[in-house]
Design brief:
single chain; 238 residues; alpha/beta; nine-stranded mixed sheet; 8 helices; 11 strands; binds uridine-5'-diphosphate
């Protein structure tokens, strides 16, 4: 049951790479198993939870277009990759007893519901985890932007960006061991200092609408649950 939660409704953004593990490509089911255990535990706290998953573990439109593909077609491939990822997450979450719905920004009703805001809200009220797939449904966007858009639509109070690092540092901590960890940052600072919290569109949307972002390490077991229970985890941008 819900104790005192720091956030009542959240959107968790998982990159496609988070599902690929060490391989960096495709799906690593050992990694997904661990991730979904964390998601199940977070859900058990009683938080209303939306998930947005990327597709970078399969196709990135910008990269495929540099290799000769038409950009728009490549972006649609990327959006389809997010649906594949969402179905994998759904399957494993449901095996762990979590009630879920996948909603797609591009209609494919044989396998998932189309995204309709009011239906998404209804699912959340019924305590289902909603997986928002297909990005925004438009080429030239990213799943970061999709995550912010959905978070605003469902009136989430925070967007949690799950990454492979503990949060935001003054420099890349993998290259510069002296890099300093920043527990908190303003939107303005992130933009002026060119810190890649999210892509520019997504960060701008958060800033304009006052939606805080927490950047945190997805590989730390239980970290999302601790954050939701009020512990200081990762970097908050607000
Ligand atoms: N994409 C798109 N529109 C969207 C969301 C995603 O065209 O609204 C495409 C784009 O080609 C992108 C790919 O899907 O490169 C995968 O998404 P993203 O790169 O955001 O995934 P992540 O980096 O989070 O794994």
């Amino acid at each position: 049951m819900a104790g005192a939660l720091a956030y009542r409704r959240v959107v968790l953004k998982l990159s496609g790479e988070a599902l690929a593990g060490e391989k960096g490509f495709g799906l690593d089911f050992t990694v997904i198993d661990r991730l979904t255990e964390d998601i199940r535990d977070v859900h058990k706290l009683g938080v209303s939870l939306g998930l947005v998953v990327g597709g970078g573990n399969m196709v990135r439109g910008s990269v495929a277009s540099q290799q000769g593909m038409d950009r728009v077609s490549a972006d649609y491939m990327g959006m389809l990759a997010t649906v594949i990822n969402a179905l994998a997450l759904q399957d494993i979450l449901e095996r762990k007893g979590v009630d879920t719905r996948v909603m797609t920004a591009i209609r494919m009703e044989e396998l998932a519901e189309p995204y309709i805001r009011r239906r998404a809200l209804r699912h959340l009220e019924k305590n289902r985890v909603v997986l928002f797939a297909g990005g925004t449904g438009n080429p030239y966007f990213s799943t970061d932007t999709a995550a912010v858009l959905r978070a605003l639509e469902i009136e989430a109070s925070v967007i949690i960006k799950a990454t492979g690092v503990d949060g935001i540092y003054t420099r890349d901590p993998k290259k510069y061991p002296e890099a300093e960890f920043l527990p908190e940052l303003s939107f303005q600072d992130a933009i002026v200092r060119g810190i890649a919290v999210m892509d520019g569109n997504a960060l701008g949307l958060c800033k304009d609408n006052g939606l805080p972002i927490v950047v945190m390490n997805v590989n730390q077991r239980g970290a999302v649950a601790r954050l939701l229970q009020g512990e200081r985890v990762g970097t908050i941008v607000r």
